[in-house]
Amino acid sequence: MNYRRFGRTDWNVSEIGYGMWGLAGWTESDDQESLDALQRAVELGVNFFDTAYAYGDGRSEEILGKILRANSGKKLYIATKIPPKNRRWPSQRDFALDVSYPPDYIEEYVEKSLKNLGVEKLDLMQFHTWEDRWLTDERLPRAIENMRASGKVRAVGISVNRWEPTNGIRAVLEGAVDAVQVIYNIFDQNPEDALLPICKMKDVAVIARVPFDEGTLTGTLTVDSKWPEGDWRNTYFVPENLKASVARAEALRPLVPADNSMAQMALRFILNNPDIATIIPGMRKRRNVEANAAASDRGPLPRDLHTRLRAHRWDRNPTSWSQ
Predict the structure, then answer these.
(1) How far is C-alpha 287 from the chain's CA centre?
(2) By the 8 A CB rule, do 80 and 126 touch?
(3) Fewest Cβ atoms closer than 10 Å to its Cβ: which of 3, 15, 59, 228?
(4) pLDDT value of position 31
(5) Cα–Cα nearest to 245, from 269, 272, 271, 212
(6) What is the pLDDT of residues 265-306, one digit of tens each?
(7) Residue 284: predicted pLDDT
(8) pLDDT on residue 46
(9) What distance in Å separates the CA atoms of residue 279 and residue 283, rounded to the nearest whole number?
(10) List of the chain residues with pLDDT < 50
């Protein structure tokens, strides 16, 4: 496992982190299987774990807490998120701060996450949705500083809404955040246009989320793919999106190196960008952990392949189903 500097925090984090939504927010998750996968990740050198209160109403945090206690002699970085009070993903432009993150509510969820994780301090607390204009309300910058000053949060970050990488630039420029979590993958390259250069300028860490486009870039989806009732993917992969996503994934298949899976190629594409501090693929099984960790050992893609993949950029706009 290779490690990268996490912005101005100066933490050295594994370039392959662990996204924990699937452990409590998707169907077919199993706690014992999740614990086994998490422990294997620790053994392979993964030290950055991204969870959220919203992943199972604290269940994902509680699962991570067990792993922290089982590995008390190792430094594992904890990143979690405050859910919006109205429980609406993504945020909408007309949502007021009091609808999503009133200051007393922020304090309440810091305490809840600390309790679920069984720790006295969080490495990174993130806002699970974001609107740059909320910073106009002076209560929010004050609440962010209060988090840091409380001694309960080391760093503060934001998780940028899907396909809105510019809606976070103000937070970076004004020094409100230490980290930005954004969708970045073979298809979604638009964070490179402005957000990533500005984060580099301000020494703000970038976390690449959704590296597989919710599964498209694993190469395992078909136009007939279906998920159990209640699974979030049913609302994301509506027919219009599923058909287009599968077609774009199939166009990539001839480019996959003989000794790689499409998923490993997708991770290695992101590793080509030195401005990314860590990638957080969702992982629920030991075999997924081992395959994803191996991408770090293989390193970035050869320059010519990376260049060819850049031509597969897919610029999309938020829709009613993109969430």
Answers:
(1) 20
(2) yes
(3) 228
(4) 83
(5) 212
(6) 999 999 999 999 999 999 989 999 999 999 999 999 999 999
(7) 87
(8) 98
(9) 12
(10) none
Pair 145, 104: CB distance under 8 Å = no
Long-range interactions of 269-273: CB distance < 8 A, separation 24+: 269/185, 269/186, 269/301, 269/306, 269/309, 270/184, 270/185, 270/208, 270/211, 271/15, 271/295, 271/296, 271/299, 271/300, 271/301, 272/300, 272/301, 272/306, 273/184, 273/192, 273/196
- Residue 29 is predicted with a pLDDT of 65
Domains in the chain (CATH in brackets) are 3-310 (3.20.20.100)
What is the structure's pLDDT at 228?
86
> What letter represents residue 97's amino acid?
L
User: Which tokens sit at 153?
Assistant: 């949060």
* Residue 14, helix vs strand vs coil: strand
- The pLDDT, as a whole number, for residue 27 is 59
Name the nearest CA neighbour of 126 among 198, 202, 187, 205. 205
Task: State both tokens at 242.
Answer: 């599923």
Query: Any residues with CB less than 8 A from the CB of 43 and at least 6 apart, and which?
Result: none
Token pair 């069984």 is found at 118
Q: Enter the tokens of residue 261.
A: 């899976």
